[in-house]
Amino acid sequence: MKQLSALLGQHDDIRFVRIEKGSLRVVTKAARAGFAGQVTRRVSGLTRAQGPQEALRAYARLNEMVAEDGGTARLIRGSAVILHFSGTRVDAARPLRMLDHGFITGKLYAMAQDARGGDVKARIRLASGSNSVSCTASSAVGRHLRSFLFEAVRAHGKGEWERTGDGTWICQSLHIDRVEPVRNVSLRAAIDEIRAAEIEWPDDPLGELDELNDAGGQV
To answer: Dihedral of the CA atoms 103, 109, 112, 118 (nearest 10)?
Structure first.
């Protein structure tokens, strides 16, 4: 229950109600309206190693405890499963790291350069969560990068990537060689733009793709 409390956060707004019979079921209740949604957002990225450090540590420890019991566990809100504990020990799922080209998307919120005019240092807060990535760039790329400060960008380059226990790759650092702005539009607006495009879609696009593959064509 201590680890679960750290996982959920905001201790004054969480009430442990009871423990049900059968398989161990710890029942909690939000003390104020709307807080359950905040908890859901807090824990939604933990399986991707994204979220507050206190919650990440609690999630790892709960996984270890579940593994010691030889089972699995779930965090449920209503009838929806919002977090799954696979029962994987931390030492049995050590992350794999590699260097490779890729890109990240998020908000560029910090930049700095030393007085000697070397590489530029920057930080990008990922669009997929609260985590940020430490980045570097040459002076030339840095001058271009500066025009996007405090805006959403997609940064390309060679970085260090870490694979978590559930197979997700997380960028740990990135040397930026190219950057581009990202439009922050709603899903509905993006769909409307696609529909407004004057494109003659085939009746059977998958069938035409198969024909191209059979003919050795390229898409």
So the answer is: 10
Amino acid, single-letter form, for residue 153: V
Domain boundaries, the chain: 2-92, 96-181
Q: Are 135 and 122 in contact (CB under 8 A)?
A: yes
The CATH number of domain 96-181 is 3.30.450.20: no
Residue 218 has a pLDDT of 46
> What does the pLDDT read at residue 102?
92
For the whole model, what pTM was predicted? 0.47
Distances (CA, A) of 85 to 58, 71, 124, 155, 165: 11, 9, 29, 33, 12
Burial 151-175 (b: 16+ CB within 10 A, else e): ebbbbbbebbbebebeeeebbeebb
Which amino acid does the sequence have at 29?
Answer: K
CB atoms under 10 Å from CB of 93, counted, come to 17
- 10 Å Cβ neighbour count for 19? 10
Q: pLDDT digit string (tens) for 103-124? A: 999 999 999 987 676 889 999 9
How far, rounded to the nearest angstrom, does the alpha carbon of residue 188 sit from its chain's CA centroid?
22
**Helix 53-68 with 35-43: angle, nearest 10 deg:** 70
Q: Is the pLDDT of residue 29 over 60?
A: no
